[in-house]
Design a protein that fits this description.
heterodimer; A: mainly beta; 0% helix; 57% strand; B: mainly beta; six-stranded mixed beta sheet; four-stranded antiparallel beta sheet; 12 strands
Chain lengths: 113, 115
Protein backbone atom coordinates (compact mmCIF):
# COMPACT_ATOMS: atom_id res chain seq x y z
CA UNK A 1 0.00 0.00 0.00
CA UNK A 2 1.34 3.40 -0.97
CA UNK A 3 2.27 5.71 1.84
CA UNK A 4 3.18 9.36 2.26
CA UNK A 5 3.90 10.29 5.85
CA UNK A 6 4.16 13.75 7.30
CA UNK A 7 6.06 14.03 10.54
CA UNK A 8 3.41 15.91 12.54
CA UNK A 9 -0.36 16.21 12.38
CA UNK A 10 -0.47 19.38 14.49
CA UNK A 11 2.26 21.90 15.20
CA UNK A 12 2.34 25.15 17.17
CA UNK A 13 5.32 27.44 16.72
CA UNK A 14 6.25 30.94 17.75
CA UNK A 15 6.80 33.86 15.39
CA UNK A 16 10.40 33.97 14.21
CA UNK A 17 11.14 30.29 14.84
CA UNK A 18 12.69 28.11 12.15
CA UNK A 19 10.22 25.34 11.33
CA UNK A 20 10.84 22.05 9.59
CA UNK A 21 8.02 20.01 8.07
CA UNK A 22 9.10 16.56 7.01
CA UNK A 23 7.57 14.29 4.41
CA UNK A 24 8.59 10.72 3.59
CA UNK A 25 7.28 8.45 0.84
CA UNK A 26 7.90 4.75 0.41
CA UNK A 27 7.01 4.41 -3.27
CA UNK A 28 10.30 5.40 -4.91
CA UNK A 29 8.54 8.35 -6.57
CA UNK A 30 10.56 10.93 -8.46
CA UNK A 31 8.20 13.85 -7.87
CA UNK A 32 7.36 15.35 -4.52
CA UNK A 33 5.24 18.41 -3.75
CA UNK A 34 4.46 20.80 -0.92
CA UNK A 35 1.13 22.66 -0.83
CA UNK A 36 -0.62 24.88 1.61
CA UNK A 37 -4.39 24.74 1.86
CA UNK A 38 -6.46 27.71 2.97
CA UNK A 39 -10.27 28.09 2.85
CA UNK A 40 -11.43 29.57 -0.43
CA UNK A 41 -7.96 29.37 -1.97
CA UNK A 42 -7.67 25.65 -2.56
CA UNK A 43 -4.26 24.00 -2.65
CA UNK A 44 -1.46 26.32 -3.63
CA UNK A 45 1.86 24.88 -4.71
CA UNK A 46 4.82 26.07 -2.67
CA UNK A 47 7.64 23.97 -4.13
CA UNK A 48 8.05 20.74 -5.97
CA UNK A 49 10.98 18.46 -6.65
CA UNK A 50 11.40 16.19 -9.67
CA UNK A 51 14.57 14.48 -8.50
CA UNK A 52 17.04 14.34 -5.62
CA UNK A 53 18.53 17.79 -4.98
CA UNK A 54 16.32 19.26 -7.72
CA UNK A 55 13.59 21.74 -6.90
CA UNK A 56 11.29 24.17 -8.63
CA UNK A 57 9.36 27.09 -7.18
CA UNK A 58 5.63 26.84 -7.18
CA UNK A 59 3.17 29.69 -7.04
CA UNK A 60 3.88 30.88 -3.49
CA UNK A 61 7.53 30.13 -2.56
CA UNK A 62 8.16 33.33 -0.61
CA UNK A 63 9.09 32.64 3.00
CA UNK A 64 9.74 28.96 2.34
CA UNK A 65 12.62 26.77 1.26
CA UNK A 66 12.91 23.04 0.65
CA UNK A 67 15.45 20.29 0.84
CA UNK A 68 15.60 16.93 -0.91
CA UNK A 69 18.80 15.11 -0.05
CA UNK A 70 17.31 11.63 -0.43
CA UNK A 71 14.71 10.43 -2.87
CA UNK A 72 12.19 9.44 -0.22
CA UNK A 73 12.32 12.62 1.89
CA UNK A 74 11.20 16.17 1.06
CA UNK A 75 11.45 18.82 3.73
CA UNK A 76 9.71 22.18 3.85
CA UNK A 77 11.48 24.88 5.85
CA UNK A 78 10.02 28.08 7.18
CA UNK A 79 13.12 30.16 7.84
CA UNK A 80 11.38 32.58 10.18
CA UNK A 81 7.79 31.64 10.83
CA UNK A 82 5.15 34.35 10.65
CA UNK A 83 1.49 34.34 11.62
CA UNK A 84 0.42 34.48 7.96
CA UNK A 85 1.99 31.05 7.50
CA UNK A 86 -0.61 29.52 9.78
CA UNK A 87 -2.21 26.95 7.49
CA UNK A 88 -2.69 23.31 6.56
CA UNK A 89 0.35 21.94 4.75
CA UNK A 90 0.03 18.94 2.46
CA UNK A 91 2.81 16.86 1.00
CA UNK A 92 2.35 14.66 -2.07
CA UNK A 93 4.41 12.37 -4.26
CA UNK A 94 4.02 10.81 -7.69
CA UNK A 95 5.79 9.00 -10.46
CA UNK A 96 7.69 11.52 -12.53
CA UNK A 97 6.30 12.99 -15.75
CA UNK A 98 3.54 10.48 -16.13
CA UNK A 99 -0.21 10.37 -16.16
CA UNK A 100 -0.53 8.86 -12.73
CA UNK A 101 -2.08 10.53 -9.75
CA UNK A 102 -0.27 12.05 -6.81
CA UNK A 103 -0.57 10.50 -3.37
CA UNK A 104 -1.02 12.72 -0.37
CA UNK A 105 0.06 12.70 3.23
CA UNK A 106 -2.38 13.32 6.05
CA UNK A 107 -1.46 17.00 6.33
CA UNK A 108 0.13 19.16 9.04
CA UNK A 109 -1.92 21.85 10.68
CA UNK A 110 0.61 24.55 11.56
CA UNK A 111 -0.29 27.39 13.87
CA UNK A 112 2.17 30.26 14.31
CA UNK A 113 1.53 32.36 17.40
CA UNK B 1 0.95 30.57 -16.95
CA UNK B 2 -1.07 27.55 -15.99
CA UNK B 3 -4.26 28.05 -14.09
CA UNK B 4 -7.19 26.03 -12.82
CA UNK B 5 -10.48 27.76 -12.05
CA UNK B 6 -13.42 26.35 -10.11
CA UNK B 7 -16.17 28.96 -10.00
CA UNK B 8 -18.59 27.19 -7.65
CA UNK B 9 -17.53 27.62 -4.03
CA UNK B 10 -20.50 25.55 -2.84
CA UNK B 11 -23.10 23.27 -4.39
CA UNK B 12 -26.16 21.43 -3.09
CA UNK B 13 -27.66 18.32 -4.63
CA UNK B 14 -30.49 16.03 -3.64
CA UNK B 15 -29.59 12.46 -2.84
CA UNK B 16 -29.84 10.16 -5.90
CA UNK B 17 -29.63 13.08 -8.34
CA UNK B 18 -26.71 13.86 -10.63
CA UNK B 19 -24.49 16.90 -10.15
CA UNK B 20 -21.86 18.64 -12.30
CA UNK B 21 -18.88 20.40 -10.78
CA UNK B 22 -17.25 22.91 -13.10
CA UNK B 23 -13.55 23.21 -13.88
CA UNK B 24 -11.79 25.31 -16.49
CA UNK B 25 -8.07 25.36 -17.10
CA UNK B 26 -5.52 27.39 -18.93
CA UNK B 27 -2.28 26.13 -20.42
CA UNK B 28 -0.32 26.73 -23.57
CA UNK B 29 0.98 23.18 -23.65
CA UNK B 30 -0.48 20.36 -25.72
CA UNK B 31 0.40 17.54 -23.35
CA UNK B 32 -1.22 17.65 -19.94
CA UNK B 33 -3.38 15.65 -17.58
CA UNK B 34 -6.48 16.61 -15.63
CA UNK B 35 -7.42 15.11 -12.27
CA UNK B 36 -10.23 15.31 -9.77
CA UNK B 37 -9.75 14.72 -6.05
CA UNK B 38 -12.22 14.44 -3.21
CA UNK B 39 -11.44 15.71 0.29
CA UNK B 40 -13.94 14.63 2.96
CA UNK B 41 -14.08 16.33 6.33
CA UNK B 42 -11.43 13.89 7.57
CA UNK B 43 -8.94 15.77 5.39
CA UNK B 44 -7.52 12.97 3.27
CA UNK B 45 -7.13 13.58 -0.45
CA UNK B 46 -8.78 10.85 -2.52
CA UNK B 47 -8.04 10.54 -6.23
CA UNK B 48 -11.21 10.10 -8.29
CA UNK B 49 -10.56 10.30 -12.01
CA UNK B 50 -7.99 11.22 -14.65
CA UNK B 51 -8.22 12.55 -18.22
CA UNK B 52 -5.26 12.91 -20.58
CA UNK B 53 -5.17 15.76 -23.07
CA UNK B 54 -4.91 13.32 -25.96
CA UNK B 55 -7.67 11.01 -24.76
CA UNK B 56 -10.54 11.16 -27.21
CA UNK B 57 -13.10 9.60 -24.94
CA UNK B 58 -14.33 11.04 -21.67
CA UNK B 59 -12.99 9.22 -18.63
CA UNK B 60 -15.38 7.30 -16.40
CA UNK B 61 -14.87 5.62 -13.02
CA UNK B 62 -17.99 4.12 -11.52
CA UNK B 63 -20.37 6.99 -10.69
CA UNK B 64 -17.80 9.57 -11.73
CA UNK B 65 -17.34 10.83 -15.26
CA UNK B 66 -15.30 13.65 -16.65
CA UNK B 67 -16.89 15.86 -19.31
CA UNK B 68 -13.78 16.91 -21.22
CA UNK B 69 -14.19 19.72 -23.76
CA UNK B 70 -10.71 20.50 -25.00
CA UNK B 71 -11.59 23.45 -27.22
CA UNK B 72 -13.35 25.13 -24.31
CA UNK B 73 -10.62 24.06 -21.88
CA UNK B 74 -13.10 22.60 -19.47
CA UNK B 75 -13.02 19.37 -17.48
CA UNK B 76 -16.22 19.13 -15.50
CA UNK B 77 -16.84 16.31 -13.03
CA UNK B 78 -20.21 14.60 -13.18
CA UNK B 79 -21.34 12.55 -10.20
CA UNK B 80 -24.34 10.38 -10.93
CA UNK B 81 -26.80 9.11 -8.30
CA UNK B 82 -25.39 11.24 -5.48
CA UNK B 83 -24.99 9.67 -2.07
CA UNK B 84 -24.73 11.25 1.36
CA UNK B 85 -21.09 10.15 1.49
CA UNK B 86 -20.34 12.31 -1.53
CA UNK B 87 -20.54 15.41 0.67
CA UNK B 88 -16.99 16.77 0.57
CA UNK B 89 -14.63 19.29 -1.04
CA UNK B 90 -13.79 18.52 -4.65
CA UNK B 91 -10.63 19.76 -6.33
CA UNK B 92 -9.77 19.89 -9.98
CA UNK B 93 -6.06 19.66 -10.83
CA UNK B 94 -3.79 19.80 -13.85
CA UNK B 95 -0.43 18.29 -14.49
CA UNK B 96 1.86 19.74 -17.14
CA UNK B 97 4.38 17.20 -18.35
CA UNK B 98 6.59 19.79 -19.97
CA UNK B 99 7.22 21.40 -16.61
CA UNK B 100 8.59 18.41 -14.82
CA UNK B 101 5.20 17.08 -13.84
CA UNK B 102 4.15 20.17 -11.93
CA UNK B 103 0.69 19.66 -10.42
CA UNK B 104 -1.58 22.60 -9.68
CA UNK B 105 -5.05 22.76 -8.14
CA UNK B 106 -8.17 24.88 -8.31
CA UNK B 107 -9.92 26.59 -5.40
CA UNK B 108 -12.28 23.69 -4.78
CA UNK B 109 -16.05 23.20 -4.64
CA UNK B 110 -17.82 22.14 -1.47
CA UNK B 111 -20.58 19.69 -2.32
CA UNK B 112 -23.41 19.02 0.10
CA UNK B 113 -25.79 16.14 -0.57
CA UNK B 114 -29.24 16.53 0.96
CA UNK B 115 -31.27 13.48 2.08
Amino acid sequence: DVKVTQSSRYLVKRTGEKVFLECVQDMDHENMFWYRQDPGLGLRLIYFSYDVKMKEKGDIPEGYSVSREKKERFSLILESASTNQTSMYLCASSVGGSNTEAFFGQGTRLTVV
Amino acid sequence: AQKITQTQPGMFVQEKEAVTLDCTYDTSDQSYGLFWYKQPSSGEMIFLIYQGSYDEQNATEGRYSLNFQKARKSANLVISASQLGDSAMYFCAMRDYNQGGKLIFGQGTELSVKP
